[in-house]
Design the sequence.
């Protein structure tokens, strides 16, 4: 059996592989496709949510659905339909977003420095 973990490329000459090795290749490719499909749906959903509500939801209420996609329980057509719907939603959300056109770099930098300062002071106080 072929172990693809850590390998950068699948062997080019698939004609020389045994049936068991071909099945291993197929399972590996299918697993990767499902993983990418789940990430696609999650990122599109997070993007639309951020544009609509202005907050990034990291803890996913839809985790069971994303896991089902990753396990291959969704057909390709279902993933494509959901991605198409989410692209349209994200585009509309972008057009109507109340978020500023540019990031507030100065405010973000001040916040970061404040957090770092508090964390260093807090760490120093423990010693």
Sequence:
């Amino acid at each position: 059996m072929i172990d693809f973990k850590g390998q950068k490329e699948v062997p080019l000459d698939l004609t020389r592989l045994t049936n068991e090795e071909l099945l291993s290749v197929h399972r590996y490719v299918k697993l990767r496709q499902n993983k990418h499909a789940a990430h696609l749906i999650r990122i599109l959903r997070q993007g639309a949510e951020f544009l609509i509500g202005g907050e990034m939801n990291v803890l996913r209420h839809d985790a069971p659905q994303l896991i089902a996609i990753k396990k291959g329980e969704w057909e390709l057509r279902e993933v494509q339909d959901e991605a198409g719907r989410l692209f349209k939603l994200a585009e509309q959300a972008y057009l109507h977003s109340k978020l500023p056109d540019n990031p507030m770099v100065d405010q973000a930098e001040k916040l970061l420095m404040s957090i770092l300062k508090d964390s260093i002071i807090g760490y120093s106080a423990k010693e």
Notes: The chain has a mean pLDDT of 85. The radius of gyration is 22 Å.
